[in-house]
Amino acid sequence: MNAWRAWLRRISGLVIVLFALSVIVFVIFNVIPGGDPAVRMAGRHPTAANIRAIRIAWGFNKPLWTQYLDMMNRLLIKHNLISYQNQTPVLPTIGRAIPKTLSLAIGGGAIWLGFGVLFGVLSGLNQGKWVDRILTVLAMAGISTPIFWLGAVMLYLFTYVWHGFFLFSWIPPGGYVPITQSPLQWFEHLLLPWICLSVVSMGFYSRVVRNSLLEVKTADYVRTARAMGLSGRRVLLRHILRTALIPVASLFALDFGAAVGGTVILIEPVFGINGVGAYAQQAVSQLDLPPLMALTLYGGFFIVIVNALADLLFTRLDPRISLD
Hints:
Layout: H1 2-31, H2 37-41, H3 48-58, H4 64-77, H5 90-125, H6 130-143, H7 147-161, H8 183-217, H9 220-227, H10 232-244, H11 246-271, H12 276-285, H13 289-317
Helix pairs in contact: 1-13, 5-6, 5-8, 5-11, 6-8, 7-8, 7-11, 8-10, 8-11, 9-10, 11-12, 11-13, 12-13
């Protein structure tokens, strides 16, 4: 029963968060200069009559709260939300873009989590040694690198300067191929974006894992486990890593949700991937409210759900943690 109450609280919190996000986005894009959609839809040389006709046809002459409710009705119930700028359906466009964005985010997340944990463990187990120093320098370099700049440099080097070499001749210059069409080409097109997306988080995660591991190594229960004669490998896997990975699980939930809901905006246009990020960038540049409203709710929903799943993982890593 306590677990059910905890999940009901989470669902209620999700609804409140998404409602607040939708209201904030709607209000901001209706009060900023140049945010009037009727003026933009009327063309380069609009007349007062054209603007007035557009306002009436699209309902822009109604009170803001009525416009908000109508947009939510079209988005959540009728599923027929239309872009102001292109007059195209919003939800089918997002539906076609989601597989591309999830492919990018899942692959990048797997790389930065796997290698971040690996490098953090190696650094923590070799504290003060040359391995630790080298990994520390690489981590700081990765954290300090802007991913959009890194993406442009990687494209230039691997698809232009070094593309004649056999090792790099197979790397395509951007774009996306669905996994259902060709798993190999899907992998080839996403490898560079995966690496680019993972570099910053990989360095940060290695630092977090290292510091957490060094802290847990000196805990009383770890010393007790060693005193009981357990092997070093068993102590590391069953006692040290299990506790040291708890902050990593929390970070990964936040970072993966943020990657799907926002970071991909910086990556997808660089590599020519027309996913959710590219669609969001286009909507922001055109001040196109319907796509932005749908994408905001999509990103917020995804972040909250991923964090809820991370909380479930916490209870597996540490039974003392409760969902209540």
